[in-house]
Each structure stands twice: as structure tokens, then as C-alpha cells.
Design a protein that fits this description.
About 30% of the residues lie in helices and about 25% in strands. The strands form six sheets. A four-stranded mixed β-sheet has the order 22-23-1-24. A four-stranded mixed β-sheet has the order 2-15-17-16. The chain has a four-stranded mixed β-sheet with strand order 4-5-3-14. It has about 425 residues and is of the alpha/beta class. The protein is elongated and about 65 Å long. It binds ligand EPZ. The site of ligand EPZ has 23 residues, from helix 1, helix 5, helix 6 and helix 12.
Length: about 425
Amino acid sequence: MDNFLINGGRAVRGEVKVSGSKNAALPILMASILTSDKMTIENVPDLTDVRFTKGLLEYLGKKTSFLRGVFVIEENRKLKHKAPYNLVRKMRASVLVMGPLLARFGHARVALPGGCSIGVRPVNIHLDALKNMGARLYYKNGDEMLFGGNLKGGRIKFPFPSVGATENAMMCASLIKGRTIIENCAREPEISDLAEVLRKMGASINGDGTRRMIIEGREKLCGVWHKVVCDRIETGTFLILAAITGGRLILKNTDIKYLPVVAGCLAKSGASIKTVENGIEISGPKRPRPVSIRTAAYPGFPTDLQPLWTAYMSVCSGKCFVEENIFENRFMYVAELLRMGANIRIEGKRAFVNGVEYLKGAPVMAGDIRGGAALAVACAAARGKSVLRRVYHIDRGYEKLEKKMRKIRVSIIRRKNI
Ligand code: EPZ
């Protein structure tokens, strides 16, 4: 397992090219199951979860190639209709094959994914949505057995705007007869990007980006070309890296419109942010003012940037709190920040932060994608040397993170743990 060796304490300076969005690319690649035509998807980030999705699509029977961000998917043999446990357990997003397989073939067998370090992460909302479109559900040896029978458009009202469940429902509804109405659906930019792809494929989708989507399914969907939207979570990660180090960055191939609440919080903390051509420019404060946040579904403060915000506030000039409302166990990284001298107390859904003047380098360990990224950012800001272990978590969600950080003056190298 690789480590990062980081010698922190220097303000970042320079330009970062933001990659395509992992959380848009994954469902868009799964949407290729809805057609036997060729799909060409550009601006796909080269990271472990994308590589894993490539393996899953090939297991199902697709032929794929992935080079310099261009992902090509073709079909020249009958597809399997199941995603087994040994594949699903390694990447939860594998459950996104359910909707496409069900719509295309009338049945699907998908292993129940386990939880992960940030929560139990059940799939009940996904299954209820598919049942509202006529799917019948059985369980066998820990797998969901979904049978289509007479799949037809239905009415779905989500109890919570689940991103994945919205994506599964959209893909299924696009290839079955009739109209599907989804109330209280997720509104993230990644949802709109998937809707754009499905429209290009021939589905009629209205209301993406709002709480209510209406989808008219089609008999057949065709292959398309698409360029994936920028990664707003990577964007937020580098904005916070500039802010916590008091540095100055220009982020290219991105847009602050995808992070309205985060931009406001950064400005309140003392950073200055402005839109530049095809990107964003940020200058960090000498020392951030305390700004409390509460995570919420889009367009609220994104849960994926919650760990990054806590790291940033750990050196603020006062007291604040960070409230996590999406996942039940997303403060694991705080124990590692305490090893770096942070002063944070967890009480239920809140981390109460008492800002310290600076963090100190220390050996720390990543436990999930965004917690790991928060520790990388904290180590880059801390005084002294750090070793960040289990960076494979970070590799799942960030494309060449250490290379991008090195380019903007962070002293960071990857050490292969033989
Ligand atoms: C997506 O996960 C993202 N992953 C997550 O990013 C992100 O944190 C999350 O949305 C919230 O924005 C991808 O897009 C691949 P949810 P997803 O369904 O779809 C509960 C990252 O770091 N829930 O909106 O799994 C669930 O337990 C990852 O890039 C149910 O109870 O998120 C959680 O508490 C981490 N039943 C909450 O809803 C269900 O059937 C949000 O889940 C589904 C979800």
C-alpha cells in the first residue's frame, strides 16, 4: 500500500487543471448498458473507481478502451445480467447496473453491496424506486433478484434525494414504456450530466436539477459522444488547499457555479475568490475566520467536502462546528487530525472545532476517499514532515493528486510500500 511523504508549511502557488467528475462519469459509463451501440465518453478521470467500472463492464460483456481520458464502449456479444458480490463489494457504485440491466433485459441479479467506512449505505430507496416501475424483487444468497415482468413508467417519491437511487431510476425509466415521475429527486450537477447523456441517447427527460423529474421512456436508445462535466469536489479540494495554506491558485476547466455555498463559506472565512476565463482564482487568508457549516443535499454544502472543511477550520482564529447530515459515520478522519495537534470534539452529528494556530506534521492514515484528501491537505499545510498511509483510498477518487499538488509547490512524493 502506497504512502505520501509530505513536508508541509508552504503556501501553494500556480495553476491546476481540474479533471472530469468521478461521480458523473460512473453513472454515465453504466448508462452504456442501455444500448448495444458504441459510446464515446471524454474527460473521464483516470482513477481506481473508473478502472474498476471498466472491469465490471467487461465482466458483463462490453468491449472497452480507455486512453488519455477517452472511454470507448462497444458491444459485440450477449451481456450477462448479473453483478456478483466479489465485484460489487469493491465499489458500491456497482449497484448502478441495476436500473440499466432491468430496463434492457427485463431482469437483473445484483449482489447487495456491503457498507463502507462512512456508513451502512443501504439500497432500499433504489429498490423501492424500481418496484414502482413494476420490478418484482426476490433475495437469494445475499443477492437482489430483480425481475422486470411488465415494467412500465410509474410514480416515485423519494423519502430522501438519494443520488444513486435517482440515477438508477433515471436510467431504468429511459428505456421502458410510459411516463415516470420522480419527486424529491437528487439535484446534483452529476444528475444533470447523466440526464444530458440520456437525452442524447433518445430519452425525453425534463426537470433534472429540480426536485421533480419527468421521463418518457423509449423502445430503444442509441450510442452517443459526451464530455463529462468537471469535478466539483476536486475543485473544492484545491480551493480549500489554497485557503488553508494562504496560497494563490488558478483552477482551470471548472466553474464556481457548481459550488455556490462552498464559495460563500470560503469568502466568509476570509478567502477571496473570483471567476476567471474557464475557471476560478482564489487567494487564501493569512488565518481563516471560523465558519460553521451543515452538510445537505445539493445545492447545500456537499458532504464530500465536509472533511476538507473541518481540516481547514482546524486552524481558524476561533470556534465553529461542522455538522454532517448525510452519512452517519463521516468523522473518522478527525482522530488523525488530532494527532496533528487539532482541537476537535465530536458530539453526535457535529464536530466542534477550536482553531489552533497551526497543525504539526505527523504519521496519519486515510480511511476513505474524502477523509484521505482532507489529511493530504492538512499535511500540506502543517509545519514539518508527515507520512500519509493507505493512499489507495485517495486514488479511488482523485486523478494524480500528488502530481497536481507537486506542481503547485507542495513537497509531496509517493512511496511505494513494498
Ligand atoms: C453519491 O453516493 C456519491 N457517490 C457520494 O460520493 C456522495 O457522498 C453521495 O452521493 C451524497 O452526495 C457517487 O456518486 C458514486 P446517496 P450515493 O444515495 O449515491 C442513504 C465520494 O466520496 N441512503 O445520496 O451512495 C445513504 O446511506 C462518494 O465521491 C439510504 O438510506 O449517496 C446516505 O446516508 C462518497 N438508502 C444518504 O442516503 C438508499 O437506498 C446519501 O446517499 C440510498 C441512500
